[in-house]
Design brief:
Length: 433
């Protein structure tokens, strides 16, 4: 489900009128719903209750402290990919002992920091990285808990930039080399403690089949690792897809609609029904690393219309949010539903490009999109922007980062202030003459 809906013709997040937020805090503005995040967490948690499991939210999807606090309060763990993300988790009240540390390029300083904080597991992606972790652990007089990421060579059937489980991707250790890699750790790395096995085949999966194929392929390997190295957990990664198209109407994650196959959401129940029977017999702790599923539909980006421009070929709606605020359309051809804050009942739709102010042709939020007529000064909501939205934002074109709001019922909390011009140049120095 999500919590963005029209109430008497005005778009609300939970009980908060979005027009009031844009008037008070300005735009571009990210708005998140606590209710949606909580609902998604509890649904996933509940669907897996037959398994000994831990949801390790993938912090990269949205790392605002208040979002991490919400997940920590629900009892969740975290999947991190940098020392910075671990720092955020700790600042938000999360525990390192509930964190897994993923990523292909952990630095020595990050490994030291994570070891000192008592990380649950380093999910290593190469044998070279394992040796580095071993060496750092030895120098600190510690044993580092580790798992290897297996690359199962399964096609996730998602956008090529977010597919991670094929042999040609940079992620993980090849399936046929993994047993040798574990044997090498056991014999050569005295400062490592083998704790688990991890995989993650890609993001925004809209079909259950690749998850099942990967789990079935890797389960016998898990059995062997349990027998030989007494592993304690198996992490099946994240990747659960969400509804982007017409997400305002769909509302419910159980919705299937008349949509094309690629746009049908996976339901949590279908995910659990397919995977629990494969995972339960392993009798291990199962970790999950959902990012997008937890926060994607929980967020919207509000942006004001600055100008309208009619060219020979197209009509442009120029808004004050650009690819620096939300890069998914430019980077992954990501599609987001865009809707005005005031419902335009019965208005004739116009085909427009919604573009930002940045000096790049790729700076668009939507192309050839049918929208009700809008005017300069109107505010639009770009929906399903809660995942990989703010976390991928940049200061490109020296644009200050947007503010972020977390809505909880009738309350709206400012959880990140808008950057100021002073913030933009903080830490920079003129050369002394
Ligand atoms: N786990 C790992 C190792 C990842 O690389 C990612 C995403 O890149 C995730 C989990 C989260 O993926 P998603 O947001 O699709 O659930």
């Amino acid at each position: 489900m999500h919590s963005f809906r029209y109430i008497q013709g005005r778009l609300h997040c939970e009980n908060v009128d979005l027009e009031s937020l844009s008037a008070k805090h300005g735009t571009p503005l990210y708005v998140y719903s606590k209710e949606t995040i909580t609902d998604h967490y509890k649904r996933l948690d509940g669907a897996l209750d037959r398994l000994d499991h831990l949801i390790c939210y993938a912090v990269k999807a949205n790392s605002n402290l208040a979002i991490l606090q919400t997940i920590a309060d629900l009892g969740g763990g975290f999947d991190i990919v940098s020392g910075g993300e671990l720092y955020r988790v700790i600042q938000a009240g999360g525990r390192a002992s509930q964190c897994t540390f993923a990523g292909v390029g952990k630095t020595r300083a990050e490994i030291e920091y994570a070891l000192q904080q008592g990380i649950y597991s380093f999910n290593a992606e190469s044998e070279a990285e394992l040796r580095q972790i071993n060496e750092v652990a030895g120098s600190l007089g510690k044993k580092a808990p580790v798992a290897l990421r297996v690359n199962p060579n399964v096609d996730a059937k998602t956008h090529k930039y977010i597919s991670t489980g094929k042999s040609e991707n940079k992620f993980g250790v090849d399936f046929d080399r993994i047993l040798d890699a574990y044997a090498a750790i056991a014999t050569e790395c005295e400062h490592l403690e083998i704790r688990g096995l991890q995989m993650h085949i890609g993001s925004q999966l809209t079909s259950i089949d690749p998850f099942v194929e990967a789990a079935k392929k890797v389960a016998p390997l898990v059995e062997k690792l349990k027998e030989r190295h007494h592993i304690k957990f198996f992490s099946i990664g994240g990747g659960l897809g969400i509804v982007y198209r017409e997400s305002l109407d769909s509302g419910d994650q159980t919705w299937w609609g008349e949509k094309e196959e690629a746009e049908r959401p996976l339901t949590i129940q279908s995910y659990a029904d397919a995977l629990v029977p494969i995972l339960e017999p392993l009798k291990l702790r199962i970790l999950l690393e959902p990012g997008r599923f937890m926060v994607g539909n929980a967020g919207a980006l509000l942006s004001k219309v600055l100008y309208l421009k009619k060219g020979n070929a197209k009509k442009f709606v120029i808004v004050d949010a650009g690819m620096n605020d939300l890069i998914r359309p430019a980077l992954y051809e990501g599609w987001h539903q865009i809707t005005p804050l005031q419902k335009a009942e019965g208005a004739e739709l116009e085909k427009v490009d919604v573009v930002g102010p940045i000096c790049e042709t790729g700076d668009f939020l939507a192309q050839d999109r049918e929208l009700p007529p809008v005017q300069a000064g109107d505010t639009l909501a770009v929906l399903s922007a809660g995942a990989y939205g703010f976390t991928m934002a940049s200061n490109y074109n020296s644009r200050p980062l947007a503010a972020e709001i977390l809505v909880d019922g009738s309350e709206a909390h400012l959880v990140r202030e808008r950057q100021t011009l002073d913030d933009l140049v903080r830490g920079e120095h003129l050369v002394q003459k």
